[in-house]
Design a protein that fits this description.
Elements: E1 3-5, E2 8-10, H1 13-21, H2 25-29, H3 36-52, H4 56-76, H5 92-96
Antiparallel strand pairs: 1-2
Length: 97
């Protein structure tokens, strides 16, 4: 099965991220071994993109929250911890009496 987003085929997780953001993740995260000059150029490009699209941070946060909500168990392997029976928190009012 092939997946297309806006006419572009997404074949990897990085493709989905790039298509969702409209930019490659490396623009925001950087890359290993980038020079100071490359880092400066990358940050300048990111500033220009944010100036043209000030809603982008909110959109990214919304997308991230939706992914976490939909896929939290498999992404984070979260297991709720049970509280031990019989142990209750004492209130400060009762402790003083």
């Amino acid at each position: 099965m092939r997946t297309y987003i806006g006419g572009h085929q997404a074949v990897s997780i990085d493709d989905f991220i790039e298509l969702a953001l409209g930019t490659p993740p490396e623009l925001w995260l950087g890359e290993d071994g980038e020079t100071e000059e490359e880092r400066t150029a990358r940050k300048d490009a990111a500033r220009d993109i944010l100036a043209d699209n000030p809603e982008l941070p909110d959109d990214v946060a919304r997308i991230a929250a939706e992914v976490i909500e939909a896929h939290a168990p498999e992404l984070f392997n979260v297991v709720p911890l049970a509280r031990p029976a019989g142990r209750r928190r004492s209130s400060r009012k009762g402790a003083a009496a």
